[in-house]
Amino acid sequence: MNNEVVINTTGLTKYYGKQLGISEVDLAVNRGEVFGYLGPNGSGKTTTIRTLLDFIRPSGGSAAIFGLDARQSSVAIHRRIGYLNGELALYDDMTGAELLRYLGNLRGGLDWKYVQELAARFQCDLPRRIQGLSLGNKQKLGLLQAFMHKPELLILDEPTNGLDPLMQHEFYNLLTETKKEGRTIFLSSHILPEVEKVCDRVGIIRQGKLVTVETIESLKSHAVRQLEIHFAAPVPKEKFINAPGVRDIVVQDNLLTCTVVGSLDALVKTAARFEVVNIVSHEASLEDIFMTYYSGGKNDAE
User: Fold this and answer.
1) Are the C-beta atoms of residues 108 and 145 closer than 8 Å to each other?
2) Are 12 and 25 within 8 A, CB to CB?
3) What is the pLDDT of residues 189-234, one digit of tens each?
C-alpha cells in the first residue's frame, strides 16, 4: 500500500444549528487502500462525506483531498473522484443509457465500451426508463456512474443498499480489481461483515465522534460473540468466571451462555475440562460492539 495520503482531515467539525453532526474528526486515508467508515445510521458518516465533497461547509477544522483544499479546489477534486450518494436520486424520465451518457458528457466523454462491460456485470437494463426500475436496479446505475470513468478515488456511501447477494458479490469483486489498480476507495457502511470482507482499515464513528481507526485484523480481535455451550452434565459457574474476556455468564443446568470479547481460547480450554455436546455462536450487532469495547457513551455527543 502506498503511504501517500489521499484524504486528510484535521479537527473536521459540523454543526447544524446547535445539533452536532461530526466533531473533531481526524482522518488519513492512504492511496490504494479500501478504507471503511463504519457506524450506525445517524452516526455522522454522510455528514463527513458531504463535508469532504464541499456539498456542505464545515463549522471548524479542515479537509484535503489529493493534497488540495476541499473547499478551494472542489471543482478540480470532483474531476478525479467517483461518488455514490447514500440517498440516490436519478432522472426518472431518462433511460439508464441516456443518464450515463449525459453524466459522461459532463465529464468530457468516457469509454462507452467499459460502461457496457460494467452494465453486463451488474445485469443493468440500460435501455429501460429509470422510473420503472426497482431500488436495486437504480442502485446498480448509481454504481456504474461512480466507477465508469475509472476515478482515482471512489467515495461510496452505503453502496450495497438494495443489492441482492449476487450483485453484492460482484461489487466486492469490482472493489478488489479497483484496489489492484492502485486506486483508493472510501466506503461508508453500517454493516460490519461487509466492512470486514473488503476493507484494509476501518474508522468507527459513533454519535459524531471518530472512536477509533484500526486494521481489520485488530477490529476482529475485539469482536464480541454471544456463545451457548451445551454440556453433557451440569457445570460449575465459578470455573468460568475468571476466564479472560468472558462476561455475562449464566449457567442453567447443562447450558452455559456468555459474552466473549476477543479470543475464545481461554473459554474453550476451560470448557474442554467438561464433556461438550454443542457450541452455538451468535454474531453481535454493530451497536453491541459499540456498547462493549467502544463504550464511554456519557462522554459522547448527544
Assistant:
1) no
2) yes
3) 888 778 888 899 999 998 999 998 988 877 776 777 889 999 999 9
